[in-house]
Amino acid sequence: MSMSDALLKIQSVRQAFPKPDGEDMLVLDDINFSLADGQIVGLLGRSGSGKSTMLRLIAGLAPPTAGSILYHGQPVAGPAPGIAMVFQTFALFPWLTVLENVQLGLEALGLPEAQIRQRALAGIDLIGLDGYESAYPRELSGGMRQRVGFARALVVHPNILLMDEPFSALDVLTAETLRTDFLDLWIEGKLPIKGVILVTHNIEEAVLMCDRILVFSRSPAHIIDDIKVDMPQPRSRLEPAFRDLVERIYVAMTARAVAPPPRVAPDRIPGMGIDMELPRASANLLAGLIEAVAGAPYNGNADLPVIASALQMEVDDLFPVAESLQLLRFAEIEGGDIRLTDIGKQFAEAGVDDRKKLFQRQLLTYVPLAAHIRRVLQERANHTAPRSRFRDELEDHMTAESTQHTLRSVVAWARFSEAFSYDARSETFSLDNPT
Amino acid sequence: MRGTVPISVEGATRGITRWDALAILLTLAILVFIAEASRHFLQPLVELQMAPLSLAPENLPEYAARTTLRMFLALILSLVFTFTYATFAAKSQRAAVLLVPLLDILQSVPILGFISVTVVFFMSLAPGRVLGAEFAAIFAIFTSQAWNMAFCFYQSLRTVPVELVEASRTFRLSPWMNFWRVEAPFAMPQLIWNMMMSMSGSWFFVVASEAISVGNTTVTLPGVGSYIALAIEQKNLVAVGWAIGTMLVVILLYDQLLFRPLVAWADRFRFEQQTGVLPPRSWVLDVLRRSRVVALLTDRLSRLWRRTYQWPLLRLRAGPAGESSGKRGRWGDRLWTGLVAALAAVALWRVATFIFANISPPEAIKAMALGLATLSRVIVLIAIATVIWVPIGVVVGMRPRVAQIIQPVAQFLAAFPANVLFPIAVSAIVVLRLDPNIWLSPLMILGTQWYILFNVVAGASAIPSEMRDIGANLQVHGWLWWKKIALPAVFPYYVTGAITASGGSWNASIVAEVASWGDTRLQASGLGAYIAQATEAGDLPRIVLGIAVMSLFVVIINRAFWRPLYWYAERKFRLG
Known about the structure:
Chain A has about 425 residues and is of the alpha/beta class. Chain A is built from 15 helices and 16 strands. Chain A folds into 2 domains: about 250 residues, Rossmann fold (3-Layer(aba) Sandwich), CATH 3.40.50; about 150 residues, no CATH class. The relative contact order of chain A is 0.10. With about 575 residues, chain B is mostly helical.
C-alpha cells in the first residue's frame, strides 16, 4: 500500500510520565503503524498496556512525549476535526436527551439549525434509536446508551472513528448484537467513516472485527505482533481458521508473560528483587484456577483459550491469575497452555491447612518482597513494621500506583497463607495473627 | 415516519390553554411585583426619612416585597460572582493559588461587622439617594450568600468526570459552549442546594443590613428586617409576631415559587443514575412545562442562547492540549507565586500598621482573650447541639415520612434570625437574674444548630436497607446498634453539618452576644460583643482588629480540627 493511502500514520511514538524518583516511566515505546482507507485496525493488549493511552494521543487529548502522529499528513495538535471517539463508559451527558446528545458535536461544528436536526435524526435512524429521541440516558439500557455513543460520533461524519473498548461495559449478548449491527453497517458501506481504530482486550472481538491486529506488550508497551486478518466478513467463531488465529494470538500474548524470577536463596543480599510488580489476583482465584486445571477434562494441562471460555473469563481476568500461578511455581505457561507443576497438583488435592502451608512456602521462596517483609519483621524486636517502611522502598523502583497494587497483592497472599499479617487501620505489618 | 394530521385532533390544543393562562398570570404577577418593589430605588434619601417606618401590620406586605427583592438581587449577584470567580479559579492554576485561599478566608470573615464600612462606600456612589443604601444592604446580603455557592461551584468544576471532559474535547466544544453544556449543568444540583442554604442564612443579615447607622445618621430601609429592629426598640411584642408571620410567608413563597421548581428542574442534571427514588416535583414547574406559550418562549430563548455558541469571539479555543509548561512555564509559576506572596506581605503590613497605630498591643491581647471566651461558647454549644440533635436526627432519618415533614421545618428554623427571640431571652434573663455570659449564648446557635439536624437526617435516611436488615438479623440492639451501625453511618454527614454550624455560630456571636429589648441591654463578654460595640461606635481600627482575630480563630479551627476530621470521616465511614 502506498504512503498516500494512509489516513493516519503513527511514527516512533513514545509516551512517558515522570516517576516519583525523577526518572521517567515509559508507557509507550517506539510505536509505529498506519491506518489505511477502509480498514479496521485493532490495538489488542491487556489492561495497563498503554493502548488506551495510544488512542488518546490519536484523539489529540494529550501530546506524545516523542514521535509524530500524522493525520492526512498533518501532525495532530489537539482534538482534530474528522476524528471522533466512542467511549467505554459511553460518556453521555445525563442532562441531555438522546437527540441533544447526538446533536452536541454538530452544534460545536457551528452548522445551521436545520442541518443539525436533519443529520442527527438520520444518525439516530441509522443506528436504530428511532423512538428514543426524547429519552434521557438514564432511562436507557447499557446497549441503547452505547448506541447513542455511536450515533453521536457518526453524525459529525468523521474520517476516523476511535473506539475505546466500546463493548466491554455491556453484557455478552448485548455486546454481540451491537458488534454485529456495527459490522453490518460497516460492510454495507452505510457508515460515513473511512477507517476505525478499535482498542480491546478481547481476542475474539479483535479477530471478529479487525483487518489488522496489533498486539501490545506491557510496561513499556510496544507492538509485539502485527497480524493481518484475511478472513472475509462476516466471520464465524466456529471456523477452524478463526480458532487458529485466536490460538496464535494467545500464544503471542502468553509468550511475554512474566519471565520466571530468580529463586531467592537465603544467603543472598536482603532486599534484592523486591522491585518486581506483582500481578493482581486474589488467593481464592489462584486456588480456583488450580482446581479447574487439575480437574476433568484438563487433568493438569489446559489450553488457555479453551479454559478461558469455559470459565467465562476474559484475557484481563485470566492472565494475572495465570501469571501469579507461574510466579509461585504452581503452574507453567508455555505456548498458550497452562500446566500444573507437582506442587500445583499437590495443592489441588490438599486440605485447607496444608494448602496454607504450601502456599506460604511458595510465597516466601519465590516472591522476594514477601520474604523481605517477613525477614524485616523477624529482625525487629517487636515484630512489627509500618507500611511506609516498604512503600518508600518500593517507590524508588516503581510508580505510586504500582506500589499500591503490589503491596495489596502481597498482603492478600500473606493473609491467606498466614505468612504475616497486616492491620489496615494502623497501616502496620506484624508477625502475630490474632488468636 | 408517518405524516402529520393536518388538523388538530387532540382536544387540548385550542389556542391558549388553562396552563398558559396560569403561567402568564404567574409571570405578570412577578413582573408587577418587581416593578412595585424597585420603584423606590431612585427616591431621594430625604423622602425616606420623612416617611418613617410604621409598625402597622398593613405595611408589612410592602416591606416584605422590598426585602424579598433585595434578597433576590443579592442572589443574582451571587450567581454572577459564582460563575466568574469560581470558573476563573478552576480554569487557571495561577489564579487558583490566590483565589481559593482567599475564598476560604472570605468564608470565615464575619461580614456582619463590616456592614458599616461598606455603607460609606456605597452611599458615596449615589449620594442623596436611597439607591446607595440599597446597594449597601444588597451587598451585605450578597456577602452572606456568595462564598459557599462559589466554593461548591469551584469544587464541582474540578470534579467533572474525566470521560465527559474527554467527550467534550473530542467533539471540540468551545470553552463557552463547554461551560454551558457540560460544566454548569454538572454543577447545577449542588449549586441549587447551596443557593437554598444561602437564602436561609441570609435572613440573619437582612435584619442587620436594613437599619444601617453611619456615624450619627441612621438610614432605615423599609423592610421586614428594619420592621423587626423597630419592634424590638419599641418593645412591641405583637409587631414581632406579625414580622415572624410575614417571614414565614416569604420563606414559603420563595420555596414554592423559586426553589422547589428549581430543584425539580435540576433533577435531570444529577450525574449518578440512581433508580427507585421518586424525582422531586413542583406544581409551579408543572404549570410552566404544560404551558405552550412558555414552551414557545423558552424554545426561542434557548435557540438564541445556542446562537451565542457560534459567535466568533466565544468560539476561541484554548491552545493545543496537554502540559505545555516547560522550563519557562515553571519559572512563570515561581514568579507568580512570589508576586502573590509579596502582595500578601504588603497587605499584612498595611493591616498591622493600621491596627497598631491606633491600638496598643495589650488591647490586641484582650481581643484574643475575648476570642477564647467566644471559642469556648462555640465548643460547648456545638457539643450540646450534637448530643441533642444527632439521636433525634437518626430516629427521624430512619422514618422517611417523618423526615419529609421535618426537613422543611428545619430549613425554616435555620432561616430564623436570633433577633426575633431577643424579647424572650432578655426578659427571661432579667426576671430570673441570670448571668448573660452563659444565658445569651444559646442565641448564637439558634439558627445554626439545624444544619446538624438536617445533615444527620440526610445521613440516616441514606443508610442502605441491607445494613439495617443485617443489624436486625443479628439482633443488634441498644447501645451496640448506635455504636456499630447508626453513629458510624451518619458520621460524615454530621461532620459536614457541624462545620457549617460552627462557622455560622461565630458569625452569629456578633448579634447574639449583645441583646436588647427596648432600653434593656444585655451583654456577654466575647469577641462578638467586642465587634458589635466597635461597629456601633464607628471605631474602625477596633472593627478591623476584631474581625482579624475572629477570622484567625475560624481559619485555625477549620484547618486544625474540622478539615482533618472531615477527611478522617471520608476515609473511614463513607459508604460505598
